[in-house]
């Protein structure tokens, strides 16, 4: 009898949970349906790779919606998964990996977004023979993609060198010159060292690329990846500092040949097939060039009066270096919101965010919730529909809904994106075209598809 009562109680509790869950799911689906009917679904917007769902295969299990850490990128509508908020997708492809029936492939951005990408062969070669592009500059974001492409590109070059029986040791001539020491450039350099190829890497700033510019202690997420000279790197979540320390150790072991603080300004290919690579310090000659420049380029500027004051910055690494300050953060993307919350968490800071739109609509779910909470608790103030018009030494002038406001101010951070190095690529003659928009033919996509289709 006791057992029966316990069983009934358990059944009622489970039933209640199930009913609650199903009601929530129904509500959510209704919301998506309403949005779809009003043409308000945000399927647009992914800036790089994002999921493409094949409805013929989707079995409606909702695994993809559950594994996505970015919030409601995907949702269930009519028993099928679909993109609900595409702009929130950062393209790590966990949904594609998790889909049990292989209904999801990662594809590149829409043609309008991708139009400004260089033409690349499946081996990452540009329109100029023996000049390659790897990493985010080629259109695929994420550390794992940059690492894989850097490594595979050097393998291609190694095969060419072997086929041509090229002697590596001509004086002052490299076999490979790698521009950029972010994840892609580091991986390419390590593979070159592993294969004992005569290479040099040139980095305008510091080793680590975009990763070194992440805010302090930022959690880096990456899938397991094969690192040259190290093997499988299994950690999938670690801090920025841990990742940089790991790279530091591997690079030291590999006797990394890198010139930092040197910007590549021009590359010209001679009639002899040799590239002349110019930096502010001189010229290098190389048989092959790998461009691993990333996409961040130079930070985009507002172009307002006073923007050249030293208090105006475009990057925040150590939020805790700023206390008791009056701060303006300009922008409404994840970087702006994360910086504003970081600065507002420090003692005595007064933080105002200026955003030209009427709401934050393009940020990750956790940032969206975070900033609402900060606003609700009065930890920071957001001026929607506003634009800075002038930065002065100890104040800023902002146009809010057509009315000018002057705020006392010590520091300004501007996060309105970056200018990609398109002009540089065009100058050196790299061809651009509207590329095939899907990556379905690419190695990454094939591997992802095979991985989900192959039973463990
Ligand atoms: C805020 C933020 C958070 C992110 N979080 C994650 C995450 O958690 N997980 C993840 O997988 N990805 C994340 N990403 C994406 C990831 O950082 C990039 O996809 C990755 O860094 C791309 O690597 P890359 O080597 O192609 O380019 P980059 O890392 O951008 O490196 C390019 C390098 O080239 C150098 N360079 C450029 N031009 C020249 C020149 N003319 N001469 C010499 N050197 C030059 C630059 O100084 C730079 O060091 C994040 C990105 C951002 C902005």
Topology, pairings included?
Layout: H1 2-37, E1 50-53, H2 63-67, E2 74-77, E3 80-83, H3 94-98, E4 104-107, H4 111-114, E5 131-133, H5 143-164, E6 173-179, H6 183-194, E7 199-203, E8 219-221, E9 225-227, E10 231-233, E11 237-239, H7 240-253, E12 258-260, E13 264-269, E14 275-279, E15 282-291, E16 298-299, E17 312-313, E18 326-330, H8 334-344, E19 350-354, H9 365-376, E20 380-383, E21 386-392, E22 395-400, E23 403-408, E24 411-414, E25 418-419, H10 422-427, H11 443-453
Parallel strand pairs: 5-15, 6-7, 6-15, 7-12, 17-24, 18-19, 18-24, 19-20
Antiparallel strand pairs: 1-4, 2-3, 8-11, 9-10, 13-14, 14-15, 16-25, 21-22, 22-23
Helix pairs in contact: 5-6, 8-9
The structure holds flavin-adenine dinucleotide.
Flavin-adenine dinucleotide (FAD) binds at residues 135-137, 141-144, 146, 179-185, 202-205, 209-211, 214, 220-222, 263-264, 292-294, 296, 335, 421.
How would you characterize the overall build of this protein?
With 456 residues, the chain is an alpha/beta fold. The chain has three domains: 39-113 and 434-456, 2-Layer Sandwich (Alpha-Beta Plaits); 116-297 and 420-433, FAD/NAD(P)-binding domain (3-Layer(bba) Sandwich), CATH 3.50.50; 300-417, 3-Layer(bba) Sandwich (FAD/NAD(P)-binding domain), CATH 3.50.50.60. It contains eleven helices and 25 strands. The strands form eight sheets. Strands 5, 6, 7, 12, 13, 14 and 15 form a seven-stranded mixed β-sheet that branches. The protein has a five-stranded parallel β-sheet with strand order 17-24-18-19-20. A hairpin with a 2-residue loop joins β14 (275-279) and β15. α8 (334-344) runs parallel beside α9. It starts with a helix and ends with a helix. Residues 110-114 and 435-456 have low confidence and may be disordered. Bound molecules: flavin-adenine dinucleotide.
């Amino acid at each position: 009898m006791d057992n029966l009562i316990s069983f009934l109680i358990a059944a009622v509790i489970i039933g209640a949970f199930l009913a609650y869950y199903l009601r929530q799911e129904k509500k959510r689906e209704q919301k998506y349906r309403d949005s779809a009917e009003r043409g308000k679904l945000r399927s647009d917007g992914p800036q790089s790779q994002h999921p493409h769902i094949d409805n013929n295969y989707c079995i409606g299990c909702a695994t993809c919606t559950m594994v996505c850490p970015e919030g409601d990128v995907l949702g269930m509508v009519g028993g099928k998964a679909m993109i609900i908020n595409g702009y929130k997708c950062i393209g790590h492809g966990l949904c594609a990996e998790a889909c049990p029936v292989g209904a999801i492939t990662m594809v590149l951005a829409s043609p309008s977004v991708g139009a400004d990408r260089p033409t690349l062969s499946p081996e990452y070669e540009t329109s100029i023979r023996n000049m390659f592009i790897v990493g985010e500059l080629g259109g695929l974001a994420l550390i794992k993609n940059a690492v894989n492409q850097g490594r595979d590109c050097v393998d291609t070059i190694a095969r060419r060198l072997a086929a041509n029986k090229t002697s590596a040791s001509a004086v002052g001539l490299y076999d490979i010159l790698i521009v950029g020491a972010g994840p892609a450039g580091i991986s390419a350099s390590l593979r070159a060292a592993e294969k004992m190829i005569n290479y040099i890497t040139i980095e305008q700033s510091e080793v680590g690329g975009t990763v070194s510019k992440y805010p302090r202690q930022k959690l880096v997420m990456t899938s397991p990846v094969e690192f040259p000279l190290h093997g499988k790197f299994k950690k999938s979540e670690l801090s920025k500092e841990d990742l940089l320390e790991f790279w530091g150790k591997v690079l030291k072991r590999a006797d990394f040949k890198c010139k930092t603080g040197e910007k590549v300004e021009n590359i010209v290919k001679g009639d002899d097939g040799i590239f002349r690579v110019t930096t502010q310090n001189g010229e290098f000659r190389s048989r092959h060039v790998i461009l691993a420049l990333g996409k961040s380029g130079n930070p985009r500027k507002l172009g307002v009066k006073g923007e050249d004051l030293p208090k105006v910055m475009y990057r925040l690494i150590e939020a805790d270096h700023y206390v008791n300050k009056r701060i303006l953060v300009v922008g409404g993307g994840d970087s702006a919101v994360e910086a504003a919350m970081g600065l507002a968490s420090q003692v005595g800071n007064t933080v105002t965010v200026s955003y030209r739109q009427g709401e934050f609509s393009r940020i990750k779910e956790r940032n969206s919730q975070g900033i609402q909470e900060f606003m609700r608790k009065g930890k920071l103030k957001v001026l929607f529909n506003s634009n800075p018009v002038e930065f002065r030494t100890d104040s800023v002038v902002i146009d809010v809904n057509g009315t000018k406001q002057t705020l006392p101010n010590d520091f300004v951070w501007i996060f309105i994106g970056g200018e990609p190095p398109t002009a540089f690529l065009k100058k050196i003659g790299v061809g651009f075209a509207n590329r095939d928009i899907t990556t379905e033919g690419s190695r990454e996509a094939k591997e992802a598809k095979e991985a989900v289709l192959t039973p463990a």
